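Entry 14. Structure prediction run on the chain below.
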Amino acid sequence: MGERFFRVGSAVIKTLGPRFETVWQVPWDGQESIFVCNHARAMGPLSMAVHFPVRGYNWIYANAMSARDVPAYVRQDYWWNPKARLAPLYNVTVPYIAAALLPPVLRSVPYVKVYHGPKALETMRESLTLLEEGKSLIIFPGIPDGYKSHEGGAHINEGFLYLLPRHYKRTGRKCRIWPVHLDTKAHRFLVSAPLEWDEQTDFQSQVPGLCVGIAKGIREEE
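Output returned:
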């Protein structure tokens, strides 16, 4: 049911919505990859799922897929300006509308559930299995700390980066990270050259540089 919903919904969006262009700084080599993108509010996940030419498995927070947990998730994710005049109205309406609509939509796309705490190991295990099968992942690594703070990429969730050495240890293949900037006004994906890492060097020491490269690649153009 979910896959059928995704196919039908994607076809409708593509037919009625604008066309998207993908600009690659370096052509994709077809190997399993991790694509990291700016969130662009709801447009990032929607556009990457429907319009991006590489079909990947989206990392989606588990609490965004549970009707019970969605209201708290929406409030902590800064969906609206808390200083807005209508903020009190949004607070008692938007989270519950999202709770009805968000879980079935998210469950229709290819996904990996993202957990925090001890269950985070489930996320890593499933992600490694998909990469080992030659599939790609789509991750939105910006950490919000206020309204519209997803977009700048100043704060990057670095936990997923440790998939790289683990995948290499399992397969002997290097998975690369491709930063994607979604330009919602131009309906364009700008894909930067992949970020390289050195398997012969301590990985922990490379994490800060990778985060800088990700932030630069996904941030809004000045």
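Strands lie at 21-24, 33-37, 57-61, 111-114, 137-139, 176-183, 188-191.
Filed with the rest of this week's runs.
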